[in-house]
Design brief:
The protein is α+β, with helices and mostly antiparallel strands and 339 residues long. The protein contains 11 helices and 9 strands. The chain has 2 domains: 174 residues, 2,3-Dihydroxybiphenyl 1,2-Dioxygenase, domain 1, CATH 3.10.180; 137 residues, no CATH class. The longest helix has 32 residues.
Length: 339
């Protein structure tokens, strides 16, 4: 999993000088700014009564920004000028340009502080310089062309750590690489399970198409002879197939277990539909508008807990007979408007 860089924040000594530096040298425009003060910044920054100026710069990416903060209370202090690249912590910021050699010449003409000579790394030119706050900037070739209206793109940050192994472990937890690695390791198992359940998935897809077509036909004038889907239920004897297939998935040999899992999935799909019928029945009893019904159905399909409750309604309807409670059953028959 690749972790995308989308924000860099720098504490600056002088907001005006820093904004002018990044705009004039690197061509990254200031896109906004404000002054933060009051209770909310105090809570976020964990500082008593802070006040600081914020400026934002962007390159050619929609979801990236460089934040420049100048604190007025407490007042920003110079730190970057005293640190060295090997000191623990974030030590430098990386920029990329289309032509590092030409950009180096531009920096030399402007007498940019801290400008080093060009060094070749893997046959590519790199050099460093300092911004007005003493922050070390590493400049190298662009990974993809920088647009003509800009002169540079923010490429990353450099971090010096006391233990590379510990840092890499922390980075993996932060970016989710561990989860991705575990998922990749289980890929074959997941694919194999899906292939084993292919017959059941085909059956569920076919059943879903049948239900959709029935729903459409029920709304066509002149189509009759269909029972009310709100009262539909799985045949009573199928509950024993559900129990037996669930038991067989655990204790049966592999070949029989695969068949049992397919049967279990098909039966669960049927009982889920029965649960939906119960939900539809009570929505009809309550006279819920179609918009409300649509919201309920969408919620059931996107919320796992709600789907589990609907499935449980379908399974336990055999014993609790949910559609015989309250005002009694809805009349069996066809209604073109679905009510």
């Amino acid at each position: 999993m690749t972790m995308c860089l989308n924000q860099i924040a720098i504490i600056v000594e002088n907001a005006g000088n820093s904004v002018a530096f990044y705009e004039s040298l690197f061509g990254v425009p200031r896109v906004g700014g404000t002054v933060f003060k009051g209770k909310v910044p105090a809570k976020v920054q964990a500082l008593p009564d802070p006040r600081f100026i914020a400026n934002w710069h962007m390159d050619d990416r929609d979801f990236f920004q460089l934040e420049l903060f100048q604190y007025q209370s407490p007042q920003s202090r110079s730190f970057a000028r005293q640190r060295r690249p090997w000191d623990i912590g974030y030590s430098r910021m990386a920029m990329e340009v289309n032509d590092p050699v030409a950009f180096h010449a531009t920096c030399a003409r402007r007498s940019v502080p801290g400008l080093s000579s060009i060094k070749s790394i893997d046959g590519k030119p790199y050099f460093v310089l300092h911004d007005p706050n003493g922050v070390l900037l590493e400049v190298g070739p662009a990974s993809r062309p920088v647009p003509s209206h800009l002169r540079a793109r923010f490429a990353g940050v450099g971090l010096s750590v006391p233990s590379l192994d510990v840092a890499l472990q922390g980075s993996g937890a932060l970016t989710g690489d561990d989860a991705v690695t575990a998922l990749a390791a289980d890929r074959d198992v997941i694919v194999d399970s899906l292939f084993q359940l292919f017959p059941a998935l085909v059956g569920l897809t076919g059943g879903a198409l049948v239900l959709v077509n029935l729903g459409l036909l029920r709304r066509m004038r002149g189509f009759g002879g269909a029972g009310d889907l709100q009262l539909w239920r799985v045949p009573e004897g199928f509950i024993w197939l559900l129990i037996a297939s669930g038991f067989a998935t655990v204790v049966a040999p592999d070949s029989l277990s695969i068949a049992a899992r397919n049967l279990l999935v098909l039966l669960l799909g049927g009982y889920f539909c029965q649960g939906l019928a119960i939900v539809s029945y009570y929505l009809g009893r309550l006279g819920a508008p179609r918009a409300v019904r649509a919201v309920v159905y969408v919620f059931v399909f996107i919320q796992q807990l709600a789907a589990a409750v609907v499935l449980a309604l379908g399974v336990f309807d055999l014993w609790l007979n949910f559609r015989r409670h309250g005002a009694g059953p809805a009349p069996v028959g066809f209604h073109p408007d679905g009510e």
